User: Which sequence fits this backbone?
C-alpha cells in the first residue's frame, strides 16, 4: 500500500517540472533568436497568443499538481456505521480524480494548440511580405528542410518554432498520460475503499441479525 502511495506522489510531483518547462518553452516562443522586437510588433504566429504553455500547460498544471499533492498528504477519514473511523477510504481523495481530469483537459488544450501551430508553421517575412508560407502544406514542410529558407525574417524562425512547439507537444502529452494514470489510480482507490466499507457493513448486519 505504501508503494502505491509513493507511486501516486511521484505522478503528482512529475507534473511540476513538466509545468515549469512548458512555461519556459512558451515564453521562448515570444523571443525568436532572443529578439523581443517581433513580439512587440505582433509578428509572431497567432497560436503563440493562446498561452497554451504558460497558462494551461504551466500555471494551471502547477495548481493541479499542488492540489493533488495536498490531497495525498492530508487524508481525512470518514466514520463507519459503528462509530469507528474507516481508513480504507479517504473523503479527501474524492476530489482527486476530478482535479486529475482537469489536468487532462488543460494538458489536452496545450497539446491541441501546439499541434495546430506546428502544422500551420511560423509567421515570417518572405519575398512577398509577412505571411504563413507553410499554412497550406498540412505540415509537409517539416520534412522539406530546403523550403525553410523561404522565411527571411526572423532568422531561423522555422527551426525555432518547430523545436519549441515539438517540446510543448511532448510535455503536454506526458501531462495527459500522468493525469490519466493519476485519475485511474484514485478511482481504483476509492472503489477499493467503498468495497471495504460495504464488507464491514454486511459483516455488522450479519452479526446483529
Assistant:
Amino acid at each position: 500500500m505504501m508503494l502505491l502511495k509513493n507511486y501516486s506522489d511521484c505522478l503528482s510531483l512529475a507534473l511540476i517540472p513538466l509545468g515549469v518547462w512548458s512555461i519556459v518553452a512558451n515564453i521562448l516562443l515570444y523571443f525568436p533568436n532572443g529578439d523581443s522586437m517581433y513580439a512587440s510588433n505582433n509578428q509572431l504566429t497567432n497560436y503563440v497568443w493562446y498561452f497554451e504553455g504558460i497558462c494551461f500547460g504551466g500555471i494551471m498544471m502547477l495548481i493541479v499538481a499542488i492540489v493533488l499533492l495536498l490531497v495525498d498528504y492530508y487524508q481525512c477519514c470518514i466514520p463507519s456505521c459503528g462509530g469507528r473511523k474507516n481508513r480504507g477510504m479517504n473523503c479527501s481523495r474524492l476530489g482527486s480524480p476530478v482535479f486529475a481530469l482537469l489536468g487532462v483537459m488543460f494538458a489536452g488544450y496545450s497539446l491541441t494548440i501546439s499541434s495546430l501551430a506546428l502544422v500551420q508553421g511560423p509567421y515570417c517575412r518572405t519575398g512577398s511580405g509577412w505571411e504563413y508560407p507553410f499554412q497550406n502544406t498540412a505540415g509537409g514542410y517539416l520534412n522539406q528542410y530546403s523550403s525553410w529558407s523561404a522565411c527571411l525574417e526572423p532568422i531561423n524562425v522555422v527551426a525555432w518554432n518547430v523545436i519549441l512547439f515539438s517540446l510543448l507537444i511532448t510535455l503536454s502529452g506526458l501531462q495527459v498520460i500522468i493525469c490519466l494514470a493519476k485519475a485511474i489510480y484514485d478511482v481504483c482507490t476509492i472503489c477499493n475503499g467503498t468495497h471495504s466499507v460495504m464488507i464491514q457493513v454486511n459483516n455488522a448486519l450479519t452479526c446483529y441479525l
